[in-house]
Amino acid sequence: GLFLFSPTSPSGDRHREEGRRKVEAARWLLVLPYPMR
């Protein structure tokens, strides 16, 4: 599911940073050709 953009958790800032990193990774995966995953 889309748990990247979850409401503020007990670990707000760190959670947000982790989410940002995941978004970056997802973006790269979308950019790269499917077989290269």
Describe this structure in words.
This protein is an all-alpha fold. It has one helix at 12-31. The longest helix is centred in the middle third of the chain and has 20 residues, at 12-31. The mean pLDDT is 71.
Helical residue percent? Answer: 40-55%
Radius of gyration: 12 Å
Question: How far is it from the N-terminal to the C-terminal residue, by CA?
Answer: 20 Å
Oligomer: single chain
For the secondary structure, the number of strands is 0
Specify the biggest β-sheet.
none
Structural class: mainly alpha
Beta-strand fraction estimate: under 5%
Helix count, DSSP H or I runs of 4 or more residues: 1
> Poorly predicted ranges (pLDDT <50, ≥5 residues)?
none
Q: How confident overall, as mean pLDDT?
A: 71
Order of helices and strands: H
Q: Estimate the global geometry from the Cα principal axes.
A: rod-shaped
